[in-house]
Task: structure prediction
Amino acid sequence: MNIDLNKLLEGLDTKRVGRSIFFKRSVGSTNSWARRFARLGACDGTVFLTLRQTSGRGRLKRKWVSPAGGLWFSVILRPRLKPAEAFGLVFVASLAVAEVLEELYGLETQVKWPNDVLVSAKKVCGILAETKLDGKNVEYAVVGVGINANFGVKKLLPEDLWKTATSLKDELGRKIELEMLLKALLEKLERICDVFLEKGFTVVLDEWKKHAGFLGCQVEVVSLDERLTGLALDVDRSGSLVLKLGDGMVKHVFAGDVVLQSE
Ligand code: BT5
Result:
């Protein structure tokens, strides 16, 4: 298992993202690695890439299983954003992944609020965005992307994930070229990020919603302090999930996990 960085950089059509790429065969977490470099002043767009992670992270200290064959990377971004706008980066990244998987492989992708990309209703990609604030601005953000690519879920992921996770290999019945996928993702990330910064969040959100099959469905939303059931009506301009509860009340939920009622 390897990644040919020359092949990746050949013809990479970006101004910032991926202009500098750090690579290690194995690392604890690319997000932690990128954050260390961001603190030292690494440039906007610097990418941290590995073949496997030994302590891959999800949100809320959850574990992200990252065996060889997956695509595990993080990007440092230094966007001109207010802290209250930074949530938009997760939508930028999940939309980028959803669009690239459709364009390259013809897969029908869904986004699930707030940070998952699904194929066949199972998680193929997770995104972890971490921001460092500097008073009134975002100093930097690290956006980590994990895609189950060239391995079979039943072969390399633990059994408790078999029902909810999928991989590109399982969906396509073949391995894909990691360099081509990463190149397309870096280009898409930069493009959608620029749209976000120039035109605002709602333009990105409108595109994101085209993949949001959970809207209009009964869902359960699990957050740190509550568990709500209701109809997922919308995602609003602050990135919150708009939920119509059983008693007719409408609630805007900023953080949590959506569980589709069929899961
Ligand atoms: C996420 O968290 O989905 C964010 C995952 C981000 C991973 C990338 S890889 C590169 C970068 N470096 C890192 O250390 N992280 C980022 P969350 O929504 O909290 O989901 C975590 C949950 O997903 C776990 O509790 C498991 O249930 C499930 N899970 C773990 N590994 C998985 C996998 N490989 N595929 C599908 N589901 C997985």
Notes: The longest helix spans residues 178-199. The domain at 5-209 is CATH 3.30.930.10 (BirA Bifunctional Protein; domain 2).
